[in-house]
Structures are given as structure tokens and as C-alpha cells.
Predict the 3D structure of the following.
Amino acid sequence: MGNEVKIVAWEDFFVTGINSIDNQHKGLVPLINTLYKACVDGDSTVDTAFREAMSKMVEYVRFHFTIELKFLKKIKYPFYNDHKSEHNVLINQILAAAEEYKTGKKFVPHTFARTLKDWVLSHIAVTDKLYAAYVAEQIKKGLLSVKEIEAIIAEGM
């Protein structure tokens, strides 16, 4: 554990208060760290490790974003389209970076991992907190319950 390379750690600051979503967000942390580790290892396994980490990140981000967007649509989140647009930007950046790396274009995995970390964590800390506030407001008004929220998310999985 002492030699484990980390670029990010989960902090309570990122908690949205929606358990299923928070658990998915927590799942992004080791993926970002694995991607970063693959970038800084500096040995012959970097290419394979980076490709595997990138593949897992793309898969997980798509899984999470799909569930999150289904949830936001179901609860009629008023800024759904803006949220979806932000997701699309990240997905397109990840796919473009993966393609550049695959085709041998000049690409700095280390920089990409840092950019990914910054984007994901700022998205959670800012954008996701906005819908979390909306959800809390709906709960307070009696329009949603924690049980309903978890059922909606489970349905989307």
C-alpha cells in the first residue's frame, strides 16, 4: 500500500447524499488512480496497462452516466439537458484521447489522467451537487423519497 500511486482520494466533500450514486462515484476513484499509475510506471507494461485502464474507465463512465441520466430524466430534473451535455463532452474527450493513443499520435497519458481527474471530480463536486440539491428539495417537499430514488436508480441498472 505504501508504493501505491494515487492522484486522487475519495473525500466526503464529493458526497451527493444519494447512496447509489455516491457508490458509483467512489468507484471512479480507483479507476482514475489505476489510469494514472499506468501513466507513471515507466516500464514496458505502460502501454498495456494504460489501454486496459482506459478501457475500464470508458466502460465505467458509460455505465454510470447512463444510470445517472435515466435517474435525472425520471425525476424531471430541470437541467437534464445541460447535465447530459457535460457527460457527452467528457465521453467524447475520453474516446478521442483513446483513439489518438491507439493510432500513435502525440499523446501524454500523464496529462490526460490529470485532466480526467480534474473533470470528473469537478463534475461531481459542482454539477452533481446541483442535482443533489434538487433531489433534497424534492424530498423536503414530499415529492420524492429515498426509497423511490433508490428504486429509480436500481431500475436504470
